[in-house]
Amino acid sequence: MTNLEKYVKAFSEALEVPESDVPALKYGESDQWDSVGHMTLIAALEDAFDIMVDMDDIIDLSSFEKGKEILRKYDVEI
Amino acid sequence: MMWRFDRFGEAVALSDEHGQSLTYAQLAREGEALCGAIGGRCLCLNLCGNTIGSAVGYAGMVEGGVVPALLAASIDRELFAALYEAYHPAYLWAPEGFEWERCESVYERFGYRLLKTPFGAETKLHDDLALLLTTSGSTGSPKFVRQSYGNIRANTESIVEYLALTAQEKPITTLPMNYTYGLSILNTHLWVGATVLLTEKGIAQRDFWTFFREAGATSMGGVPYTYEMLDRMRFTRMDLPTLRTLTQAGGKLLPDLHRRFAQWCRDTGRRFVVMYGQCEATARMAYLPWEMSLDKVGAMGVAIPGGRFELIGVNGEIITEPHVTGELRYYGENVTLGYAQCGADLEKGDERGGVLDTGDMAQVDEDGCYTVVGRKKRFLKMYGNRVNLDETERMLKAAFPEAECACAGRDDHLMIFSTDADALPAMRAWLSEKTGLNLSGFHTTHLDAIPKNDAGKTLYRELEKYHV
To answer: Is some CB atom of chain B closer than 8 A to the CB atom of A22?
Structure first.
């Protein structure tokens, strides 16, 4: 699986939305991406890429696109 | 009158993340203007958010003798329709953009609109009735807790006393206003002339912390799930120099988390206050004094000023020796009037007489400190909201009559069991939607048969081995 596929899968499984809907996702704009969903998502990303996301990045990860930028800091190129 | 806002004049009462604020004098005037538009005592359904419009509506109505019923702005439309039909409110106080059939806007302020319904003031209200709140903010029945002016006043005075609140406080909202614990933070801080910081953002968002720092928040509250999140986010490494107090309620915190937050607060000169309460007791019944937070990990503390507890044994006797489990009974002026199931119930007076059987099983230690050890009834706390498992089971059976099912689980993890594997995903999605709680808290397990005894009663004990 490519990093992009892993990344999309983590969003899709954590927030329970079809993979096709994932690229448009933003915090607070889908029913599942609230504070509870957010922590599920962070855990899924940490598992998928074997990383530990810092507090500052947890609160910055507000969209699918923003997440790609953040993961770059952890040497994950998507 | 509840607060007499004009006492605090030009002090700031409400301040939001967009830079808007309102002094106490303005809050008093805004409340009067809103009540003037309403025209007299009647019932209003308020769709709440942590915004100035929502706060002005709530506080202005209670101050002016209008009875608000507080609901989440995100409420399921079907549940809202059921409440609207069961209670026939005279008005709705709702964010702009909310429309309802045959209702027209007659007043607008702070992004909120006062919508006049066709019912007028036909729903009769008891003189003592101040406010209606849902018991859990969740499950589907149109049931409210009836709170009186005396209830709110008594509980507010107790909380102000034990937390030693002053006008210097600046609590930041982390809980909904329509949720009893969140509302008590608003009630108590308006009582002492403090500044309430209102934000729609949550602790997982950068804007929340930016507002926290810029506005200089001094306290925040959280349910167990909030503390789990803060822990995961390594909250204790954040630089928050203005923070003085953390409060916790809405269910029992894991002892390890309790210990770590209490320790961090002690090490950094802050207060960590665990509390216990229910909507049926207005908000709070007990608190663990912060000085004791490390000595009594897992405990919920002592009765609030003006209240007291009794532990009732299986034969109805009062338990006096320590470390014996009994059902927790509470006495105090904050015990609410009772429930309402429909509009006609709003004419009822006090049905409880200051006594509340909490449904929690507890023990007391030699120092008079109480610990909740279990529950008498089958309910869970989901992200701080009480969810009755018998009720969710009934709801599922009604919505999915073909599928045999049972509900069980532990706090923040509701398990749905069914013999119909194909129906389980739909049941899970449906229940999440109806309760307004995140899907992640719902788990499903397919069983060949729901375990039952000879009388046909579900054996929930047997389901425990499947719990996640």
So the answer is: no
